[in-house]
């Protein structure tokens, strides 16, 4: 069994989740239906399911050894403040790196939600005009 590193802040579709966890798509579907992924949600007009990697870990399908933190950008490093002399160029702690990664994920999620809200508002406004 080959385990590839999975971004801790990622959300995976059912097929990608099954591949990451080395299980069948049917297993993911059954667990989803049973409520094993409390933060899973449907997105887009086609209502595709996305499952946070954290839910896969909490459900025992994905070992924590398969997790990776996303690369920290220069802007994120600058936001952490001055580094101590001789620092390796990364954030001060793994917890800080995880918090920064989660922050980026939440900002991306907010942007997606705002785009969807704007789209839905246009649909509603178009329906009222008709």
List the helices and strands and how they pair.
Layout: E1 6-7, E2 11-12, H1 14-21, H2 25-34, E3 41-43, E4 48-52, H3 53-58, E5 67-68, H4 74-79, H5 94-129
Parallel strand pairs: 1-5
Antiparallel strand pairs: 2-4, 3-4
Helix pairs in contact: 1-2
The pLDDT mean sits at 77
The sequence of SSEs as H and E is EEHHEEHEHH
CA-based shape: flat
Q: Radius of gyration, rounded?
A: 18 Å
Q: Please work out how many helical segments DSSP would assign.
A: 5
Q: Beta fraction of the residues?
A: 5-15%
Euclidean distance between termini CA atoms:
57 Å
Give short descriptive properties of this protein.
130 residues, mainly alpha, two-stranded parallel sheet, 5 helices
Written description of the protein model:
Mean pLDDT is 77; it is low at 72-76 and 84-89. The longest helix has 36 residues, at 94-129. The protein is mainly α and 130 residues long. 18% of the residues are buried. The chain has helices at 14-21, 25-34, 53-58, 74-79, 94-129, and strands spanning 6-7, 11-12, 41-43, 48-52, 67-68. Strand 3 and strand 4 (48-52) form a beta hairpin. The chain is built from 5 helices and 5 strands. Helix 1 (14-21) crosses helix 2 (25-34). It folds into 2 domains: 1-68, no CATH class; 70-130. Strands 2-4-3 form a 3-stranded antiparallel sheet. A two-stranded parallel ribbon has the order 1-5.
């Amino acid at each position: 069994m080959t385990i590839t590193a999975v971004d801790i802040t990622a959300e995976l579709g059912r097929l990608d989740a099954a591949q990451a966890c080395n299980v069948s798509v049917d297993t993911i579907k059954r667990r989803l239906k049973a409520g094993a992924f409390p933060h899973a949600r449907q997105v887009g007009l086609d209502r595709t399911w996305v499952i946070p990697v954290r839910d896969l870990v909490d459900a025992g399908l994905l070992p924590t050894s398969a997790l990776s933190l996303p690369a920290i950008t220069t802007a994120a490093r600058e936001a952490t403040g001055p580094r101590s002399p001789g620092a390796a160029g990364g954030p001060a702690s793994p917890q800080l790196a995880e918090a920064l990664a989660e922050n980026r994920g939440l900002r991306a999620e907010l942007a997606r939600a705002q785009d969807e809200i704007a789209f839905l508002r246009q649909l509603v406004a178009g329906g009222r005009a008709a």
